[in-house]
Amino acid sequence: MPPPLSLSLPSPPPPLQPLSLLPHHAKAPSHSLALSSRPPPSSVCSVVPARHSDYFDPRAPPPPPQRDVYGQPPPTPAQGTPGARVFASYSIYKGKAALAFDPRPPQFVPLESGALKVVKEGFVLLQFAPAVAARQYDWSRKQVFSLSVWEMGTLLSLGPTDSCEFFHDPFKGRSDEGKVRKVLKVEPTPDGNGRFFNLSVQNRLLNVDESIYIPITKGEYAVIVSTFNYIIPHIMGWSTFTNSIKPEDSQPYSRPQSSPELEWRR
């Protein structure tokens, strides 16, 4: 009889251990790495780090200073005490004279109610200075002329060939009336591309008789017109009035009964 057959089966592999239970010196089987690198779905938890405000991060460094297109820092606000006055001017320089336009604010007085009232409109001060050399002007010999609101309106309404003339007597109504005479003439240049500003001053108190004129180009006069259009509501006090309007302070308007004396107010 043939000898009996014997069959030997391989022993089963040892059970897999979690990586956390393996000793530090032991190496995990190669097939266990693939299993341990993908945790079961039940243990997946996405952790989002805490976010600070989009407007301020206390850990973030301060932002770099702002620069303009030329790499320069932006201009800082005007220094000085709150409510400090600001002076502005538009100046024109020519060969024989210089002319500066300086706005002056209106005058206000307080009322018992706490409101303010315009008692005197502002104006634009024209300052003429004669030239003493190339690009040098003697402002100590300047002559001035104050343009009122309606005089500025006259200049704004001039046509290409129109001219105007203003007469001022600073001492009108006083004892020295007639001793100082100022005449400002504005007329077109012969070529029609600009205007002449001519100021004549006769001052018998100081024994002065002087005339200063300066040509103004069409572009320069356009700047004057734009400046006058902007500044007139301010020197009349209207901009201060509109800035003081508050919706919560408005009161219902009751229309008065119609009558002949009130008809024109409609």
Describe the protein.
This protein has 266 residues and is an alpha+beta fold. 15% of the residues lie in helices and 27% in strands. The strands form 3 sheets. Strands 1, 2, 5, 6 and 7 form a 5-stranded antiparallel beta sheet that branches. The radius of gyration is 43 Å and the shape is globular.
Provide a compact summary of the structure.
This protein has helices at 30-36, 149-156, 218-235, 238-243, and strands spanning 90-93, 97-104, 107-110, 116-120, 123-133, 136-137, 143-147, 164-168, 180-188, 194-203, 208-217. It is built from four helices and eleven strands; from the N terminus they run αβββββββαββββαα. The chain is globular.
Write the layout of secondary structure elements.
Layout: H1 30-36, E1 90-93, E2 97-104, E3 107-110, E4 116-120, E5 123-133, E6 136-137, E7 143-147, H2 149-156, E8 164-168, E9 180-188, E10 194-203, E11 208-217, H3 218-235, H4 238-243
Antiparallel strand pairs: 1-2, 2-5, 3-4, 5-6, 5-7, 8-9, 9-10, 10-11
Helix pairs in contact: 2-3
- Specify the number of helices: 4
Strand content: 25-35%
Computed structural class: alpha+beta
Q: Report mean pLDDT, rounded to a whole number.
A: 78
Q: Secondary-structure element sequence?
A: HEEEEEEEHEEEEHH
What's the Cα radius of gyration?
43 Å
Shape: globular
- First-last Cα distance: 140 Å
Number of strands: 11
- What is the share of helical residues? 10-25%
Give unreliable regions as ranges.
Answer: 24-37, 39-58
Largest sheet: 5 strands, antiparallel
